[in-house]
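Supplementary Note 3. Input sequence used for the single-chain structure prediction.
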Amino acid sequence: MCRPSWDLQLTWTLFCITVQIGTNLHNDYSDFVQGADTEKRVGHARATAKGWLTPRQTCQAATFSLFITFACGLYLAMTTGQLFNPIVWFIILSSIFNAFAYTAGPYPLGYIGLDKWSIAYSGLGEIFVMLYFGYAATLMLPYLLYCQGTDIPWGECFTYATSVGLLATNIIIVNNLRDRLTDVLVDKRTTAVRFGRRFSIYEYVFCLVMAMMEVIVTFVAYSSSVTRLLPLLILPIGIREARAIMVKEGESLNKHVGGAAMVEFFFCILVTMAKVVDP
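The predicted structure, written as discrete structure tokens, is reproduced below.
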């Protein structure tokens, strides 16, 4: 399998990072102006709520970050000869739109009448994360290589993308579990608010187990090398994190938002190592 050149890899990495930063900054702004971030908040400190940045400054930072996202997307489309490919542009533009739509608010979606609807407030956060921080983030570069005539093992790619998406989803699950008692006060209808604490715990465990099962599927279906099982080494940490969210509440869950992110991070490193050893 042909690997993308370094400039494509770095540009796509920057694309993904700036989408994440832009989404978080706009979330910071929008939750503040919609009243979700108050003195009752038990989550990590936020710049707007703490007064470190004004709402306008937070908006400007989010917009600037997502402008870089757009520039990276444009560079990728031009460099790979996909400037007129509608699929590529759908991924680029929908990623930017969803960064704003995640929590919506008066800017900028208020200008087109969508300020009262948001992905997070509607309970669609997990779906968004799975689609964009799992599938889109993992499959965009293989798709660009495919457009350039490279033979891509799509089954294997989709399997790994599913695992990455499931582990990314666990981050938002813990976040929503922590915030559910304050989210309900502002009608932020996350899955934790809609279905309760027990549902969120089951959801977390399901995502963790399925992500590990996908590793076994990859080993059985696409390789006979035990190096493909390297990502399973993260399982003990994943189990530790799952046990923690079963017994903790509120502010004590803060470090386990980072814990879920750590599981995904090291999982991706182990997947990379496995693929380097057994391409």
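The chain has a mean pLDDT of 90. The radius of gyration is 19 Å.
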